[in-house]
Amino acid sequence: MEASPRLAKAAAQPQVYKNINLRPLTIHPLASLRRYKDLMDLSLAAGNIEAHYVCGIQEYFHKNNTTVGLSHLKIAAQGSYDNGIYTFTE
C-alpha cells in the first residue's frame, strides 16, 4: 500500500490500525502470510480483532501452533468478532 507522505503520517495512529477493516484478509487469512506483514503487525499491536482472528487462523491451522492460535482466536471472540466461526471441543 502506498500513500502520499502526508496521508501516511496521518494514518500512522494506533486508532486507525485498531479500526481498519481487514475483512478481505479474514476471508483469505493465508494471503497475509507473505504480504501485508507490516499492516498485520501494526493492527495486532493496536488491538484490531480482525487481525487477531487472521493471526489465530494462521497460527492454528497453517503453522500448527495451537497455543498461540487459540489465544488470538480467544481475543477475537471476546472482542465480539462475529464473522468468525468458532467451534470448541474437549
From TrEMBL:
Signal peptide: none annotated. It comes from the Eukaryota. InterPro entries: At1g67623-like, At2g35280_TPR_dom. Residues 43-87 form the At2g35280-like TPR domain. This is At2g35280-like TPR domain-containing protein. It comes from Eruca vesicaria subsp. sativa.
